[in-house]
Specification:
3-stranded antiparallel sheet, Ribosomal Protein L22, Chain A, alpha+beta, 4-PPantetheinyl_Trfase_dom_sf, about 25% strand, about 140 residues, 5 strands, 4-PPantetheinyl_Trfase_dom, single chain
């Protein structure tokens, strides 16, 4: 029997502003650079090319919301394996790879839908998918 799964996360834009300061002021790979792929960083910009705190916060919230769908309590978030990209018409789209794809498969998740919104200094994301119980192979 299939089971709906929902994940939600909220990220303060002020925290992303702090992380942006680390990213822009450091030659190392600070936290934000470990959480978002190079592609995600490139597409999270304002029309004038500056980093977009709302877009970055939305992607971080979306990654956390997707991770909550996996039901992988106690495991680290596979940040680089969950990408939040622009799909057709600009809608956010989820791409999974590596450990994130493995966790999704173990959870029996089908396609993941994501919604992101920004207001009042926060970004919120909701991820939804349907999980179908995984039946282990019989040897």
């Amino acid at each position: 029997m299939s089971q709906p799964r929902i994940g939600v996360d909220l990220v303060p834009l002020a925290r992303v502003g702090e992380l942006l300061g680390e990213l822009l002021g450091s030659g190392s790979r600070p936290l934000l650079g470990r959480m978002l792929s190079e592609h995600e960083l490139r597409i999270s910009v304002t029309p004038d090319g500056a980093p977009d705190p709302a877009g970055l916060a939305g992607r971080l919230a979306a990654k956390e919301a997707v991770f909550k769908l996996f039901g992988a309590t106690g495991q680290p978030v596979p940040w680089q394996g969950i990408e939040i990209l622009r799909g057709p018409g600009g809608r956010p789209e989820v791409r999974l790879a590596g450990p994130a794809a493995d966790l999704a498969a173990r959870a029996g998740l089908g396609p993941i839908d994501i919604s992101i919104s920004h207001d009042g200094g926060f970004a919120i994301a909701v991820a939804a998918a349907v999980a179908v119980p995984v039946v282990p192979a019989v040897p």
